[in-house]
């Protein structure tokens, strides 16, 4: 579940993220070549006999030009995709009950969002074993939820199935009651970036849907999400989903003890930009463990934030990519966040454990 700099966080949990410094200009590493122009008319030559005008421009490689042309074709295809009506809120059913014998996270029952914990979550061998168990359960639940994705199924039905599987395993669905969130899972369809609330809307043929599952098992949270295809999905949308997953994988690949956090955003941004996709800056990854959300904040875009990874540490990497604008707007429910231009968005997320030589993906089984 992504952290955000939404006004809700600012007012309730002092979690307003400051404007993140951007990385280097996309032109900073490009080779530049001067083009020289001389005055053509006699009068111009007389008025400035010793001068020449030098214009510096960026060389465009054949690959860059090909990528630009493909991007234009994809944008044209996206316009065709977007002929369907924009996402609208359906009916939200009552909150589902959780048996009394299942332990609750400490935030349940509180109307305010918890503050972001400042300490990194670094685990001993027992803590790592507990994290593995929670994350494995989250992965199994997410995999099951994905099997339910098909046209005519409602996101409310997915929520009920996820809720039941989690409580049958003796765990608590972490989103339920977090800052007042009314459901056990986040379901974000098409232009919804994240934090979509399950409701009565039926999935349509050609939709994409991100399902974000977090479970609280034996005092530890396991957090993961994936974007699924519903029915016959267009090739441009398939490419968006595929590249988003690749971005997450490339971010994970740079992680190890002593590595700087900014490498994650650099690697993700480089891959996304190669395909012409935008990386959403507002939503970030986070530390996770006995606490749902803690430091470090994981930026997915190019940045110069300080800090290095430590062996035994657990956190999420969860990039969101868009076909168009990376700007967003949040519905009156204070959760559902959609792209400002109505373009599609995709997200993938894993919880990882930092090791001496790399990173172990915990949300797999």
UniProtKB/TrEMBL annotation:
<feature type="binding site">
    <location>
        <position position="286"/>
    </location>
    <ligand>
        <name>a divalent metal cation 2</name>
    </ligand>
</feature>
<dbReference type="GO" id="GO:0006508">
    <property type="term" value="P:proteolysis"/>
</dbReference>
<keyword id="KW-0378">Hydrolase</keyword>
<protein>
    <recommendedName>
        <fullName>Methionine aminopeptidase</fullName>
        <ecNumber>3.4.11.18</ecNumber>
    </recommendedName>
</protein>
<feature type="compositionally biased region" description="Polar residues">
    <location>
        <begin position="7"/>
        <end position="17"/>
    </location>
</feature>
<comment type="similarity">
    <text>Belongs to the peptidase M24A family. Methionine aminopeptidase type 1 subfamily.</text>
</comment>
<feature type="binding site">
    <location>
        <position position="349"/>
    </location>
    <ligand>
        <name>a divalent metal cation 1</name>
    </ligand>
</feature>
<dbReference type="GO" id="GO:0009507">
    <property type="term" value="C:chloroplast"/>
</dbReference>
<feature type="domain" description="Peptidase M24">
    <location>
        <begin position="130"/>
        <end position="355"/>
    </location>
</feature>
<dbReference type="InterPro" id="IPR000994">
    <property type="entry name" value="Pept_M24"/>
</dbReference>
<feature type="binding site">
    <location>
        <position position="212"/>
    </location>
    <ligand>
        <name>a divalent metal cation 1</name>
    </ligand>
</feature>
<dbReference type="Pfam" id="PF00557">
    <property type="entry name" value="Peptidase_M24"/>
</dbReference>
<feature type="binding site">
    <location>
        <position position="318"/>
    </location>
    <ligand>
        <name>a divalent metal cation 2</name>
    </ligand>
</feature>
<feature type="binding site">
    <location>
        <position position="223"/>
    </location>
    <ligand>
        <name>a divalent metal cation 1</name>
    </ligand>
</feature>
<feature type="binding site">
    <location>
        <position position="223"/>
    </location>
    <ligand>
        <name>a divalent metal cation 2</name>
    </ligand>
</feature>
<feature type="binding site">
    <location>
        <position position="195"/>
    </location>
    <ligand>
        <name>substrate</name>
    </ligand>
</feature>
<dbReference type="InterPro" id="IPR002467">
    <property type="entry name" value="Pept_M24A_MAP1"/>
</dbReference>
<keyword id="KW-0031">Aminopeptidase</keyword>
<keyword id="KW-0645">Protease</keyword>
<dbReference type="GO" id="GO:0004239">
    <property type="term" value="F:initiator methionyl aminopeptidase activity"/>
</dbReference>
<keyword id="KW-0479">Metal-binding</keyword>
<dbReference type="InterPro" id="IPR036005">
    <property type="entry name" value="Creatinase/aminopeptidase-like"/>
</dbReference>
<feature type="binding site">
    <location>
        <position position="349"/>
    </location>
    <ligand>
        <name>a divalent metal cation 2</name>
    </ligand>
</feature>
<feature type="region of interest" description="Disordered">
    <location>
        <begin position="1"/>
        <end position="30"/>
    </location>
</feature>
<dbReference type="InterPro" id="IPR001714">
    <property type="entry name" value="Pept_M24_MAP"/>
</dbReference>
<dbReference type="GO" id="GO:0070006">
    <property type="term" value="F:metalloaminopeptidase activity"/>
</dbReference>
<dbReference type="GO" id="GO:0046872">
    <property type="term" value="F:metal ion binding"/>
</dbReference>
<comment type="function">
    <text>Cotranslationally removes the N-terminal methionine from nascent proteins. The N-terminal methionine is often cleaved when the second residue in the primary sequence is small and uncharged (Met-Ala-, Cys, Gly, Pro, Ser, Thr, or Val).</text>
</comment>
<keyword id="KW-0809">Transit peptide</keyword>
<feature type="compositionally biased region" description="Low complexity">
    <location>
        <begin position="18"/>
        <end position="30"/>
    </location>
</feature>
<feature type="binding site">
    <location>
        <position position="293"/>
    </location>
    <ligand>
        <name>substrate</name>
    </ligand>
</feature>
